[in-house]
Automatic annotation (TrEMBL):
Protein name listed in UniProt: Amidohydrolase family protein
SUPFAM superfamilies from the UniProt entry: Composite domain of metallo-dependent hydrolases (SSF51338), Metallo-dependent hydrolases (SSF51556)
Domain Amidohydrolase-related: start-end pairs: 91-446
Source organism per UniProt: Bowmanella denitrificans
InterPro entries: Amidohydro-rel (IPR006680), Metal-dep_hydrolase_composite (IPR011059), Metal_Hydrolase (IPR032466), Metallo-dep_Hydrolase (IPR051781)
Coiled coil: none
Length: 467
């Protein structure tokens, strides 16, 4: 049974439903052990606040929530709690992906395959940032919430909204009235967010934003026909991909026209007045930006591409398509120079330094898989100049705030949901530790990543691809 209407939206704000693994055999198969009362002993804690690591800590979990945090020498552990001694490990909040699709380009809905990989990678919550199969996404959201299958908590996004020149399968309302009706209908079905896509026209975009806010929903956008400035003035809540999708600096852009946002990036003065004015406006209008450096990196031929662990999960046809694309990328004389990526990273640093609210998601596609892309996005934020604690805050607490859940998850704090990840190593000293997932805890249930990954090899991507 699907969750429908406003009840779906409000349900996420309530305390999470605690699942009894003994009544959910599909969940139990993936658990490290069934106990929900746990003490994590002698761990480092990066709490998601952006502050330094707390060392030699005890974290106690009871009834699906964090009940105690304190020094290992002085914290009294309940007798009934299962004690895990974890020196040399770091406990962090579960990652919160803010641009995570339940589909991949050119293929059908990923469903449980993606859900398991997200969870195995330490991603306990996602916002899907555009749906290619809305009903399937709603069904997956409800199935995970009921405990019928493992996966992250999902904030489902309505189908993409674009303009006449946009992609074929997307919705293209012709009038503001049609746009408003779609927002009402999809809100009633369970959409929590709406996404404007590249060719959306200004009048339609304004209607979507206004109606979504009336329905208690939020709007993000992968923009092109709208500049960042125009969308901010309309009241958009969030913008995806950062500077690479901004058409504000294109000299020939006309109203409502989608033009190349990459033209002129190499020559753009990232420290100049034009960029500074845009950042000031975004901060003043409280527009969130979503960093998607994991997928953006794939546009640069000399950057790391195609991790072995991701390729092993792809179908043979998908691997072949990846290899073809890599040959095309390396032979493309017009591909962006690597210094452009440095400018994109610098823009995100400047935005945060100015008081801007930055979140992160991978935008799964090509070889950027769910979960793996979230981890890579964290590593790239550190490469961009954020410290590991700062990058973790972007990937957890900032995202929870954007979802209206700042007091529920996104931090290791007393009273918060027990949505946590246990990593082997010292994350504060080495961003690559984000990949060393030993345990994933979602609402007190302790998952074994190896069990979640079992049987996923070769399941990403269609078996046959058309050239």
């Amino acid at each position: 049974m699907l969750i429908t209407g406003l009840a779906c939206f409000s349900l996420f704000a309530a305390a999470p439903t605690q699942l009894d693994s003994s009544h959910n055999p599909n969940i139990q198969d993936y658990l490290a052990f069934p106990s929900q009362s746990i003490a994590l002993l002698d761990v480092d804690v990066l709490d998601g606040s952006g502050g330094p690591a707390l060392t030699r800590q005890t974290v106690v979990l009871s009834n699906g929530r964090i009940s105690q945090i304190g020094p290992v020498a002085t914290t009294i552990v309940p007798e009934h709690a299962k004690q895990l001694y974890l020196p040399g490990h770091t406990v962090i909040p579960g990652l919160v992906g803010m641009h995570d699709h339940t589909h991949m380009p050119g293929q059908t809905f990923l469903g449980e395959v993606a859900a398991r990989l997200w969870l195995a990678s330490g991603v306990t919550t996602i916002q899907t940032a555009g749906s290619a199969d809305f009903q399937a996404e709603l069904s997956l959201t409800a199935a995970i919430q009921r405990g019928d299958m493992p996966g992250p908590t999902i904030f489902p996004t309505a189908p993409y909204l674009t303009g006449p020149d946009g992609n074929g399968p997307m919705h293209k309302p012709e009038t503001p009235a049609q746009a408003r009706q779609l927002v009402k209908d999809w809100s009633a079905k369970g959409a929590t967010w709406f996404k404007l896509y590249r060719h959306i026209q200004p009048a339609i975009a304004a209607a979507v934003i206004d109606e979504a806010h009336k329905q208690g929903r939020k709007v993000t956008g992968h923009l092109c026909s709208l500049t960042f400035s125009e969308a901010a003035q309309m009241g958009i809540d969030s913008i995806e991909h950062g500077l690479i999708s901004a058409t504000d600096f294109h000299p020939q852009k006309s109203d409502g026209q989608c033009v190349s946002s990459r033209q002129g990036l190499a020559a753009l003065d990232i420290e100049g007045e034009e960029v500074a004015k845009l950042i000031v406006l975004l901060v003043e209008k409280q527009v969130t930006l979503t960093s998607t450096l994991a997928i953006i990196e794939s546009h640069f031929a000399h950057r790391p591409q195609g991790e072995a662990r991701s390729l092993a999960l792809m179908s043979e046809a998908w691997q072949q398509a990846y290899q073809r694309r890599q040959r095309q990328l390396k032979n493309n004389a017009s591909s962006m120079p690597d210094e452009v990526l440095a400018k994109l990273m610098a823009f995100e640093r400047r935005f945060v330094q100015a008081g801007g609210h930055l979140v992160m998601g991978p935008d799964p596609g090509r070889h950027v898989l769910p979960g793996h892309g979230n981890q890579r996005g964290f590593e790239l934020l550190v490469e961009a100049g954020f410290s590991p604690p700062q990058a973790l805050k972007i990937a957890t607490a900032n995202a929870a705030k954007t979802l209206g859940q700042a007091a529920q998850f996104g931090q290791v704090a007393i009273g918060f949901n027990a949505d946590l990840v246990v990593l082997k190593g010292k994350l504060a000293a080495d961003a690559r530790v984000i990949r060393n997932v030993e345990l994933v805890i979602k609402q007190g249930q302790v998952y074994d990543p190896a069990k979640l990954l079992e049987g996923l090899q070769g399941r990403f991507g269609p078996q046959l691809l058309q050239d």
